[in-house]
Amino acid sequence: MKITLKLFATFRNGRFKIAEQELAEGTEVRQVVLSLGLTEEEIGIVMLNGRHGELDSTLSHGDILSLFPLVGGG
Amino acid sequence: MDKIFRVNMTDLTTKIEAVPAAWAGLGGRGLTSTIVAAEVPPTCHALSADNKLVFAPGLLTGTAAANSGRLSAGAKSPLTGGIKESNAGGTAAQMLAKLGIKAIIIEGAPKTGAWYNLAVGLNGVTINEEKELLGLGNFAVIDAVEARLGKKTGVLTIGPAGELKMTAANISVKDPDSKIRSHGRGGLGAVMGSKQIKFISIDGEGAKPVTIADPEKFKTAARAFSKALLDHPVSGEGLPTYGTNVLVNILNEAGGLPTRNFTTGQFEAHDKISGETMHDTIVERGGKPKHGCHAGCIIQCSQVYHDKDGKYVTSGFEYETIWGLGADCCIDNLDDIARADNLMDDIGIDSIETAVMFGVAMEAGILKWGDSKEMLRLLTDEIGKGTALGRILGGGAGSVGRTYGVTRVPVVKNQGIPAYDPRSVKGIGITYATSTMGADHTSGYTIATNILNVGGYVDPLKKEGQVELSRNLQIATAAVDSTGMCIFVAFPALDIPECLPALIDMINARFGIALTGDDVTNLGKYILKLERDFNQKAGLTNVHDRLPDFFKTEPVAPHNAVWDFTDEEIDEFWNF
Ligand code: SF4
């Protein structure tokens, strides 16, 4: 299956902004995070199709996954 | 001993008063709102002699506590018709605190057309007639005051918008680089203009360090507090690196980035105006990605933005301004948005109200969607010069909506709704609806918990838990706004258990008292209820605690969310 992966803020350093990824059925967000060389603790916000997701959310074909470090403003 | 400086602009007299016992434990917002509620008739015209303009540094301002240098300004707001407190950084708050000035109260209004400046110093305030600087922009005023009185002089000033009493006018505060921070919201610049005061200078000569009852205890608490600020990923790393503008991409992903005057929740060109792009641009052009709005800020969310030639364009370039002129007006040119930010500082007009206003103006057909050049022209030639059109625009989003017959006007209590769509981030909708300030994200920043996973998580698209979340945050914020602290200390305070006790310990050590966490919560509740009572007497009741109808009837993409709280559910907010 294919998903779209978007990275933000410091996660872009040395990586990319947006990329298509070919993944095995049933892949979880956590596996994608680790494959990027990121640790679970570094993840601030997981967004799956514009809704908040979890590290153990299971991905499906066509999903848009966005990963953010803990950042904020106002 | 701390004192109150009172300035009467009707008979042009000034007085130094002792601090009444009831005000001794108050500072910042708690003090400005208490004074306004005690001394301003709620039904008065906000631009009449009966209104009073009050400035007060916070309880910890002037001490070594990190991030404590904010100044509160309060009055009845000409924009909302209710009570207003707006706080800002800059150099003024710490100077006032070190001069032992608990508050400055400016009352009355001149009987003639003459304009004045106020000179504040250790021994009181003098009122001087001012002719030379009338009509000038804020940057020129700051330069001229420094040339007249010295580089170190503190300055509070209004631009042409304030002189013309536009209801979106702000009060500018000189920052450590002689640039500008603003008491932005609610038209306080028009109140200063109605008193015919062009600027207030502050002479720090003779200032002394503020007294600390228990210096050892203070030092320990201050250290723990700073550590919490630096340890939290948002205040320690996120804010200094990307500023507040990192939110563009986050809100866009969450579908809560109001776009094209609140008709959709995502902006195609989001990446061009994002914090990530801004950071890279600033670094590439030799600007400063991090910068503090006052000495003692260790978070440094501010920045200095340069143009292509490496020349200064603006600083303190905030998410709300960039969102408003960017996504909400469909402008994808960050350089033009930066130019507009600088113009708004110079003219002295609130960058949030004005950005929301331009979205409504585009809907009204005054200018085309995305036309940044025409936006810059309207700022310079119409608002800046005070033409008839400029005065309509300078009245804010509600003013333009009424004048041009627009029905999609995002305001609550006539104050423009900022940067987060209340349909897809419902907690902030409760804050917009119920805040005593009119639509104001800072008064109960539920984005922390709805979007940023700070202080737990409450699903932004569901109704459950939002009223309670907003209530708790509004109570805490009212208390924090009284300390002189920047509101971004809330991020560590929500997550790091040592942070809030350290803040309370600093207050206790400063005054030799023994406040508990409950006392601080009670202070927040007291402030909200006092402000609410003023508003009710001014005619703003629970029927004004509502969002505009279009939020109920127009679903917003991508989640097709509507505002679905009943009136009774919203009114639950005040059950405390
Ligand atoms: S974090 Fe930002 S707003 Fe807060 S005090 Fe520092 S520069 Fe000012």
Automatic annotation (TrEMBL), chain A:
Superkingdom of origin organism: Bacteria
SUPFAM superfamilies: MoaD/ThiS
Species the sequence originates in: Geomonas propionica
Pfam entry (one): ThiS
Alphabetized InterPro entries for the sequence: Beta-grasp_dom_sf, Mopterin_synth/thiamin_S_b, ThiS/MoaD-like
Listed name of the protein: MoaD/ThiS family protein
TrEMBL record, chain B:
InterPro entries the UniProt entry points to: Ald_Fedxn_OxRdtase_dom2, Ald_Fedxn_OxRdtase_dom3, Ald_Fedxn_OxRdtase_N, Ald_Fedxn_OxRdtase_N_sf, OxRdtase_Ald_Fedxn_C, Tungsten_al_ferr_oxy-like_C, W-dependent_AOR
UniProt keyword list: 4Fe-4S, Iron, Iron-sulfur, Metal-binding, Oxidoreductase
SUPFAM superfamilies: Aldehyde ferredoxin oxidoreductase, C-terminal domains, Aldehyde ferredoxin oxidoreductase, N-terminal domain
Residues forming coiled coils: none
Pfam families: AFOR_C, AFOR_N
Cofactor requirement: [4Fe-4S] cluster; tungstopterin
Location of the Aldehyde ferredoxin oxidoreductase N-terminal domain: 1-206
Entry's family note: Belongs to the AOR/FOR family.
Protein name per the record: Aldehyde ferredoxin oxidoreductase
